[in-house]
Amino acid sequence: MKSLQQLLVMSLICVIFSSAIAKSKQIVIFVSFSMADAALQDYYHEAKKLGAKLVMRGLRNNSFKDTQVKMQELRISVDIDPTLFEQYQVTAVPTIIWVNGQGNAKKITGNLTLSSSLEIMEKDNTHAEN
């Protein structure tokens, strides 16, 4: 069980992270440990090249230690931020959000490469989702 202090720190980090994303041009990839290990590693390496961030809703088995062990095993790094899942109404993974710097975002869900997803979103001239 998480201590109140841990929950408060996580909440504060989530608020700061959410605010920073809305104000900057950013690519966020929503993922989960339920995805194949190879898919997580592929998204991580693509994200690293483009300066994108991988985000998960919560901890593996509700444990910081289990989460850390799995990330080390896969050699990936992710942020934990359930508020972003709510903010962008992400209900399935992988989902890629492209925030334009004015708080507007485009969203695509499905097992596509990051570069393919960005190409599709760049060609799509419809209004961005919020």
UniProtKB/TrEMBL annotation:
InterPro entries: T4SS_TrbC, T4SS_TrbC_subgr, Thioredoxin-like_sf. It holds the Pfam family TrbC_Ftype. It comes from the Bacteria. This is Type-F conjugative transfer system pilin assembly protein TrbC. It comes from Candidatus Tisiphia endosymbiont of Sergentomyia squamirostris.
